[in-house]
Amino acid sequence: MAEHGRVDPMAQFKIEPLFGTDHWAIAGHNIAFTNSALWMAITTIALWVFVQGGMKRALVPGRWQMAVETMTGFIDGLLAANIGPNGKKYVPYIFSLFMFILFANILGLLPLSLLGVHPFTFTSHFSVTGVLAILSFSIVLIVGFAKHKLHFFSLFVPHGTPVWLLWLIPIIELISFLVRPFSLALRLFVAMMAGHVLLEVLSSFVISSANSGLLWGGVVGLPSFLLMIAICALEILVAGIQAYVFALLTSLYLNDAENLH
Amino acid sequence: MRIRRLRHRTLTMPQISQLAETYASQIFWVLIFFGFVFFVIGKGMVPKVMETMAARDSQIAADLAHAEAARRAAEGADAGWQATAAQQRAQAHALIAAAKHDAAQASEARLHAAASVIDARVADAEARIGAAVTSAMAEIETVAAQAAGDIAQRLAGITVGEDSARAAVKEALHG
Q1: Where in the sequence is the domain holding A155, given as residue range(s)?
Q2: Cβ separation of A95 and B53 shorter than 8 Å?
Q3: Residue A225 lies in a domain
Q4: Prediction ipTM score
Q5: What angle do CA B137, B141, B143 make, to 5 degrees?
Q6: How many distinct structural domains can be found in chain A?
Q7: For residues A189 and A23, what is the distance between their CA atoms, to the nearest angstrom?
Q8: Is A85 part of a structural domain of the chain?
Q9: Residue A10 lies in a domain
Q10: Contact A127 B15 (CB under 8 A)
Q11: Which residues of chain A make contact with B28, given a CB cutoff of 8 A?
């Protein structure tokens, strides 16, 4: 990480195989268990523990059960608002998506480096966010075609399209439709990566300026450190917002598939 | 020195530079773990959590409905009681009025009976008084006639017949 007193802001995204490098493979593709996979496992376990706390099924919920019910109620409300009564059946998927991304984002922000552990934010890899985006997009396609058959293509001709624009609007709509998985995947990956890079660059400012002496430490290091604190708060917000945006956009796309428009 | 080192370093994105070697692992593991999250947590646990919420909501709604029904029953019972009380009060009033009426009638009848008895007694007494007066008058006539006869014999030495004495007395008495 800090070779010769310098900080490489990209080193935090480096994938390091932990085990299974040599012989774990599917059809010739290596599937080594990496630090990325390790943090997926940690995210999964943390999420499982969190939801397990909501399984007491008490009539009068305690704090933990209340927290879990708040999250499921939040997703339920999101789907009810965006899709309607048909949205109920997507609660498991959207909940999984939202909570998986949210926990991954927040766990990746934990200051575990103080304990000598390097958190890894796997949502800052488009190979991961891409899989989630393609999953969401596939569900939209499957639901859309299963429910509306070829009528689903009417999605590309919005209501009130003038006849003389019929040659152009469907093309624009088709492009905007096909861009969806990329926008889903890239938005999350870029937001997470940018925040982490920013924090890392600012921390390198703090370290370098402090090493240069009191003057530079005061002029550059201290403001950078204060900015870092503010950006840490912002990053926590972004972690929530990006998970929410991913879930919200997926539910909006599902609404198109469920109800056309 | 530092600038040269900076130029020497190449800042690469591991997301891209490591893509070829890691994409299979990334895709595989995210599918495994997200699949676990979806099937075990999303499909297995979330519906139970939501079931609990729905059960609680329905219980609250049922309790509220129950309370509302109880309130309505109480209101109905109260209205029934009020009606019964009003009815009973009206019945009591009617009974009192009937009793008053009966009592008035009874006392009137008694008064009437008493009055008729008194009237009969008065009439009887009056009749007896009349009879007594008549007999007294008759006796007075007889006595007066005898006295007139005696007086005439003693004073004038005339013997007056009983019948003429009586006629004269009658004439004198009755004018």
Answers
A1: 18-259
A2: no
A3: yes
A4: 0.89
A5: 115
A6: 1
A7: 30
A8: yes
A9: no
A10: yes
A11: 26, 29, 31
